[in-house]
Task: inverse folding
């Protein structure tokens, strides 16, 4: 009995195929992380209690890709934002950022898994 397997590309082409997959995935991952940043920031703003409007207006976000890592940061520049988020001994917490991050994280994980499979399938058919 003989079993044959054909991969669709020669072993000497494997490095180039994987590099192409990584490059394609990186570009799409950066776009998806920027989308996550915007979604988190928007939901945190919507969840922010409004007195003067400063807390709601002070949300910031940044997504960067450096040295093979994609980082997204969302924060608030208002000096009292952490007290509102976590509460104090005299005031109950009014979470804004954590619920927004939790909601987006589930969608982000799903989308990254789909992206990896889609890019791999595209390279496999190339």
Result:
């Amino acid at each position: 009995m003989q079993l044959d397997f054909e991969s669709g590309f020669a072993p000497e082409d494997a490095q180039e195929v994987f590099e192409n997959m990584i490059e394609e995935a990186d570009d799409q991952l950066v776009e998806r992380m920027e989308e996550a940043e915007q979604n988190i920031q928007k939901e945190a703003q919507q969840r922010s209690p409004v007195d003067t409007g400063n807390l709601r207006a002070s949300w910031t976000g940044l997504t960067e890709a450096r040295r093979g890592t994609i980082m997204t940061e969302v924060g608030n520049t208002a000096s009292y934002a952490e007290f509102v988020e976590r509460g104090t001994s005299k005031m109950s917490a009014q979470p804004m950022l954590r619920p927004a991050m939790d909601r987006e994280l589930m969608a982000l994980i799903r989308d990254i898994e789909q992206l990896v499979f889609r890019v791999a399938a595209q390279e496999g058919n190339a």
About this structure: The chain has four helices and two strands. The mean pLDDT is 85. The two ends are 31 Å apart (CA to CA). Strands lie at 59-66, 69-76.
